Amino acid sequence: MNTPRPSAEPAHPGWRLVALVYDSLPVIAIWMLVSAIVLALRGGTPVPPWSAAFWLQAAALWLITGLYAVGSWRRGGQTIGMRPWRLRVVDEHGATPSTPQLWRRYGWATLSLLAGGLGFLWSIVDRDRRTLHDIASATRFVRLPKAPK
Q1: β-strand partners of 10
Q2: For the residues 83-110, what does the mean pLDDT come to?
Q3: So what's the pLDDT on residue 7?
Q4: 122 Rama class: left (phi>0) / alpha (psi -120 to 50) / beta
Q5: Could you tell me the strand order of the sheet in which 139-143 lies?
Q6: Among 44, 60, 125, 142, which has the highest number of CB atoms less than 10 A from its own CB?
């Protein structure tokens, strides 16, 4: 399904937080797997903090997390953490965003998190509940209505 139902509404910031917490579970599992592989490749020697290998591993984890998020948003507009609450990422017209839009969204969301969540907090004052990464990527985060029984 590429477009949300017409009555999809901007998602409340609380739904974003719930989905983010839920999505931390598969992301932590992915990070543990990647870190175990790195540890095995290094013969059981941990990566020294702040070394070149540390930054390389951090970049790899960021990229792999991006592949999970962008891939999920591109396939169905949702990550695992968004599905139970009928949340979806759409473009400004309600369709599936392009891959470059989604990577822009992921990059700006990363900066928002690194800035203590300030980009996310913008959704509290924005009339359409958009975060700064929604605005920068021309995407929206919506909540779909319940399907009729």
Answers
A1: 142
A2: 95
A3: 67
A4: alpha
A5: 9-10, 139-143, 87-91
A6: 142
Give the separation between CA 133 and CA 107, rounded to whole angstroms: 8
Write out the two tokens for 15.
């739904």
Q: Which residue has the higher pLDDT, 79 or 2?
A: 79
pLDDT in tens, 6-55: 568 999 889 999 999 999 999 999 999 999 999 999 999 999 999 999 99
> Terminal CA-to-CA distance of the chain, rounded, Å?
19
β-strand 139-143 against 87-91: which pairing, if any? antiparallel
Residue 73's Cβ-side half-sphere holds a number of Cα atoms within 13 Å equal to 27
Which residues, listed in sequence order, are joined to residue 143 by a DSSP beta bridge?
Answer: 9, 87
Secondary structure percentages of the chain, helix, strand, coil, to 5: 60, 10, 35
Tokens 């997390």 found at? 65
Q: How many CA atoms lie within 13 A of 32 on its CB side?
A: 6
- Whole-number Å distance between alpha carbons of 149 and 106: 35
Encoded amino acid at 37, one letter: I
- Rg of the chain in Å (alpha carbons): 17
Instruction: Answer for the pair 126, 76: CB distance below 8 angstroms, yes or no.
Output: no
